Amino acid sequence: MKPVTPTLDKLPSLGLSLLPVVALISLLAADVIAFGEDSSYGANQIAMLLAALVAGVIGMFQGTKWKLISEAMSNSVAQTTEALLILLMIGALSGTWLLAGIIPAFIHYGLQILEPGIFLFAACIICGVLSLATGSSWGTVGTIGIALIGIGTALGLSAGWIAGAIISGAYFGDKMSPLSDTTNIAAAVGGTDLFTHIRYMMYTTVPSLMVALIVFLIVGFGGGATDGDFEATFASELGSAVFGTFNIHIGLFIAPVAVLIMIIKKVPAAAALFIGAILGALTAIIFQPNIIQSLTTLGSEKSFALMAFQTSIQAMALETQITTGSELADQLLNSSGMAGMLNTVWLILCATVFGAVMQAAGMLQRITQAILSGVQSTFSLVARSVGTCLAFNVLASDQYLAIIVPGNMLKDAYEEQGLAPENLSRTLEDAGTVTSVLIPWNTCGVAQSGILGISTWTYLPYCIFNWVSPIMTLAVAGFGLNIRSLQNAKKSAAKA
Questions:
Q1: Rounded to an integer, what distance in angstroms lies between the CA atom of residue 430 and that of residue 403?
Q2: What are the residues whose beta carbons fall under 8 Å from the beta carbon of 444, sequence distance 6 or more?
Q3: Cα dihedral angle (481, 482, 483, 486), rounded to 10 degrees?
Q4: Which end of the chain has a smaller Cβ tally under 10 Å, C or N?
Q5: Which residues pair with 226 in a beta bridge?
Q6: Over the range 99-121, which residues count as b (16 or more CB within 10 Å of their CB) and which as e?
């Protein structure tokens, strides 16, 4: 994302810059008190727009032109177009994959293979491998993540722990993949080449993943995330309901494999997911004609082709509810299609507007200056860098801004400290990329919550990898481990 540069002769004071933040936090807290879990269905959107209004009014009184604010909002919203399209495609895909029995097939086979004790560990690894191969945490969560939610719930695991394992693995793979947009952006902004950046991240990222996997194993085998009676009842009842309702066999995995191949081949994610949704509809027509006939609202005298068309479009766009006769199974076997993503789209747009206004008014830059004042050592520089990335994830509500803006601002400071640029690029990923999903109003937090159907507040304590990563980068800097000097980096480059 290319942020708009403020044209002010003088940035606003720190107190004025923090006023919109205080307003946002206060409004969000009031929303939680007044609306509870429903606060993200309208109230939080209004809160972000009101906070943006506060920032805009202050900015204009300080001399920021409305034209600049308008341009900033337009540019920021334009940058979210692909992400919003991907969200809509994930909604369409989840609908047709449910109709086709693909998600029920994942659940059916998963119940046979995965045990509660190893589920969190295995879910993290599976999502990590898929995200590493595709470079997309969103694509991973929107495909295998949805299926794993169903399997984990059937095994009696806590929704927070399941989502935490899925997100931990997905963000590990996304962070380490050369196909990832954030990985490429962090390397470019930091001023180092892609594979040097990835190799240097291994010193903090691999230990962070090991910590997460150990925690998931301890929790799984310790039974801390399970309820044995619920597990036995739900697994048995769901397995019987799924197998008795759908035509389950290995051929249902053609569509998921095709989507995986397309993403690996660098087909744009939105296109790959939409093709996957269409393949899901075709799979339903071929293998689940009984489901199509049970869901259509057309009379029996109509042709099967027309019934298939109606149910496929319904699954992509609107709600699909499979009735199995099991109340437990029916709670899982439903999808809201693209329509189910519209609230998430709404929230992302409002969050983007707030971040854009703060950027245009110079408030984000002023807050960053305050964070960086008094930097004297490597540890203090890395610590301030972590704080800056976290601040941008909270204040700007956007993962890309949390990488690009701090990276541009801190680049000279790392050079002045004699530090190689890969120190900066690694810190940007350790603190900017992985923490975005933990912020309920950040675009990543909103998206993953919408995809999984689990609130950010519910899963954030259990995203172990995402919590450990910024702590690990601070520990490495504090002990002076794997901190590469600019001089050594230049010598290595000369030898190469």
A1: 10
A2: 399, 436, 437
A3: 150
A4: C
A5: 157
A6: bbbbbbbbbbbbbeebebbebbb
Q: Name which of 276, 343, 344, 284 is nearest 314 in CA terms.
A: 284
Q: How far apart are CA 183 and CA 200, in angstroms?
A: 12
Q: Is the pTM of this model over 0.90?
A: no
pLDDT tens per residue across all 496 residues of the chain: 445 555 556 788 888 988 998 888 788 778 767 876 667 678 878 988 999 999 999 999 888 889 899 998 888 888 778 778 877 887 888 889 889 888 788 777 766 666 778 889 988 988 887 787 667 787 778 777 887 888 888 777 888 999 999 999 999 988 888 767 778 778 877 888 877 888 889 999 999 999 999 999 999 887 655 544 444 555 566 667 777 788 888 888 888 888 878 877 778 778 888 999 999 999 999 999 988 888 888 877 788 899 999 999 999 998 888 887 766 667 667 778 888 878 778 877 887 788 788 888 888 778 777 777 777 788 888 888 898 888 878 876 777 778 877 877 777 788 888 888 888 889 999 998 899 899 887 878 888 888 888 888 899 999 999 999 999 999 998 888 777 776 665 556 555 5
- Structural domain boundaries of the chain? 14-81+341-495, 82-335
| Torsional class of 377: left (φ above 0), alpha (ψ -120 to 50), beta (otherwise) | beta
